[in-house]
Known about the structure:
Elements: E1 2-5, H1 14-23, E2 28-31, H2 38-46, E3 56-58, H3 65-68, E4 72-75, H4 77-82, E5 93-98, H5 101-105, E6 111-116, E7 147-150, H6 160-165, E8 169-172, H7 174-177, H8 182-197
Parallel strand pairs: 1-2, 1-8, 2-3, 4-5, 5-6, 6-7, 7-8
Amino acid sequence: xxxxxxAAEEVxxxxxxxxxxxxxxxDLLHLRKxxxxxxxxxxxxxxxDATYHDRLVLHSHPQLSxxxxxxxxxxxxxxxxxxxxxxxxxxxxxxxxxxxxxxxxALDTRWNYAFLSPLFPSISKIGxxxxxxxxxxxxxxxxxxxxxxxxxxxxxxxxxxxIQAGADGIALLGALWQDPDPIQHFITCKQLCSKNxxxxxxx
Length: 203
């Protein structure tokens, strides 16, 4: 599984890039637009072809999931630990984020998958992960009821390493939006992963 996360800020030709990513086989797209109003989020989602709406994941605005007909919601670590999320959203497909393998191993089956980050020094957050990269924690995984998706500093050059170490998939952020040709970067990453490990989407 290969997941992409949008940049928080607006990116030139963003909608064109999103549609091309889906056309090239992107499994899921996490919408990281925390600063959007409800109306802005509604317009943003409406700009994405409805064919792909079942592959969208809300990182914010969970109250709009029914209106937008998006059945996937991501709860960050803070929301998960504080219990601030609305439990009725567990009728949706839910994901979360963790920052240590022990946190991942403690997750229950309410979570479809979880990001473990940072596996490598971050591309989008300079300095993040430089001294606390988590790739070497993957062999300590004991939870196989929840899918583990590697996040943080992942590129086409190192994308196979998390899969080889036991992750179920990878997520791309800075590698896409800071690359002059994000579509080609995704294609290269997908080809490498698919060729070597037959990565395929799973619900």
